[in-house]
Amino acid sequence: DQQVKQNSPSLSVQEGRISILNCDYTNSMFDYFLWYKKYPAEGPTFLISISSIKDKNEDGRFTVFLNKSAKHLSLHIVPSQPGDSAVYFCAAMRAAGNKLTFGGGTRVLVKP
Amino acid sequence: ETGVTQSPTHLIKTRGQQVTLRCSSQSGHNTVSWYQQALGQGPQFIFQYYREEENGRGNFPPRFSGLQFPNYSSELNVNALELDDSALYLCASSVPGREWTDTQYFGPGTRLTVL
Asked: Between chains, do B101 and A98 touch, taking CB under 8 Å as contact?
C-alpha cells in the first residue's frame, strides 16, 4: 500500500519557466510534509517543508502548497534553472513520528 | 558544521554473506534513521535509533539490525544477504523536538551490490 504517490515519473521544463511537481497521500494521520532533491551518487538534500496547519510555505524560488482536504501537495519552482535538474522526492511524517514515508520520485529536466 | 557521512561508498558482497555499514551523524544530532532505496524507487524506512535505543522499525526482517554508539554514530548490519538487498542505503540524522517535528538530513549513501 503506497501511502505517498508521485504520479509523474518525469517532467521537462524550459529554463526560466515554472516547474510544478505533484504529490498525493492517503494517510490522514500525516502532519508534516517535506520535499527532497537528489542528484546522482548523492543523498537526498532537504529543500522545503510544510506542516498541516499551513497551506503554503515559501523559501526563495521554492513554494510548497498543501491541500489537506484533497490530500495533495505540490512544489513550485520559479524560475527553473538548469541546476534544478534532479530527482525530487515528496515525503510525509506523522507528528512526533520517527519515519519518513517517501513517494517514488519525479525526475526533473530543465532545458537551457 | 560537519554533515552526515557514510562508509563505505560502495560495497560488493555475495549471497549469504554479512555486511556492516557505518554512519556518522551531523554535529549535534542525536537521532539516526536508516533507509533502503532500491533502483527507481523512493527510500524505505528500515529503523531509527535515538540515544542508543531502537525507536521504531519499518517492514524489514530481523536480519537487518543496527546499533547506535554514545557519540551518536550508527551501524547497519545485514546478515544472510539476498540478491534483493542490492540497493542504496541511506543514513539520516535529526534532532527530535526542534520546532514541531524534526527534519532528517541525509548522508551520501552506501551502494551495496549482492551477487
From this structure: no
DSSP state of A68: T
Closest CA to A98 of B90, B101, B71: B101
Q: What's the pLDDT tens digit per position in B31-84?
A: 999 999 999 899 999 999 988 999 899 999 999 999 999 999 999 999 999 999
Total Cβ atoms within 10 A of residue B86: 17
Residue labelled with grid coordinates 549513501: B109
Strand B31-37 with B44-50, pairing: antiparallel
Q: What contacts B99, CB < 8 A, 6 or more positions away?
A: none
pLDDT of residue A1: 67
Instruction: Describe chain A by its helix, strand, coil percentages, rounded to 5.
Output: 5, 55, 40
Torsion A56-B90-B34-A4 (CA) sign: positive
Mean pLDDT of A80-100: 91
Rg of chain B, C-alpha, whole Å:
14
- B53 to chain A, any CB pair closer than 8 A? The answer is no
Give the closest of B43, B48, B108 to A102, CB-based.
B43
Structural contact between residues B106 and B41, judged by C-beta atoms closer than 8 angstroms? no
C-alpha cell at A53: 496547519
Other beta carbons within 10 angstroms of residue A45's beta carbon come to 14
